[in-house]
Amino acid sequence: MTNNTFVDMPATIENITFTGCTILSVTEANFLSPFPSLQILQLIRVCLELESALKMLYPFENKKMNEIKFEEVNQGYCDGLVRTPFAVTITAEMMKYLQNICVQKLVMIRNGIVDFKPNSLLLHYHPECFKEIEFSGNRFSIMNGFKLKELITLIVKVSNLSTFHFSGLLGGIPYSRNDLNQYPLF
């Protein structure tokens, strides 16, 4: 993908979905810039490194979006009958564009995330924008060390969050600021 890939597409497009495709690499991080009105970006069953998918968000830094959905975005889903995601550790560098987007619904499910570093997955500069967060189907823990501290910090700041979904559960966990002390973590 280059900065010229979508240059002839209408700037009024608000929803882009990549489904079941292989993107060899995101060579230029600004290739989605022809879509300044984009509100929804979905990558579903896309054969691409998660790090490259997160770089796609560069043109939307400091903007508002309704939804960012990365579902089964991992090169491990590409080949063969046994589709297993490669292990991914999220770093602050990988998250630097997403952290600066005011997004209402963030879905990052079944992407092979096994761990995350400090100030990465749970650090967001516009937490008040979140209405729904979903991290299900990955293999990382958030209940130890700095991760628990970052989770609590995020929970305190997400004033509009209605659903936080983490694990393999079928439904989300209802969240209300009034109920924060009803379900203590300790």
Q: How much is the radius of gyration in Å?
A: 17 Å
Specify the biggest β-sheet: 7 strands, mixed
Cα-to-Cα separation, first versus last residue:
47 Å
Classification by helices and strands: alpha/beta
Number of helices: 3
- Unreliable segments of 5+ consecutive residues: 169-173
Mean pLDDT: 88
Give the helix proportion (percent range).
10-25%
| Arrangement of strands in the largest sheet | 1-2-3-5-7-8-9
Order of H and E elements = EEHEEHEEEHEE
Quick tags:
single chain; 186 residues; alpha/beta; seven-stranded mixed sheet
Write the layout of secondary structure elements.
Elements: E1 15-19, E2 40-46, H1 50-55, E3 64-73, E4 88-90, H2 92-95, E5 102-109, E6 113-116, E7 132-134, H3 145-157, E8 163-165, E9 173-174
Give a quick precis of the structure.
By secondary structure, the protein is α/β, with parallel strands linked by helices. The chain has helices at 50-55, 92-95, 145-157, and strands spanning 15-19, 40-46, 64-73, 88-90, 102-109, 113-116, 132-134, 163-165, 173-174.
Description:
With 186 residues, this protein is an alpha/beta fold. The longest helix is centred in the last third of the chain and has 13 residues. It contains three helices and nine strands. The strands form two sheets. It has a seven-stranded mixed β-sheet with strand order 1-2-3-5-7-8-9, with no helix packed on it. Helix content is 12%, strand content 24%.
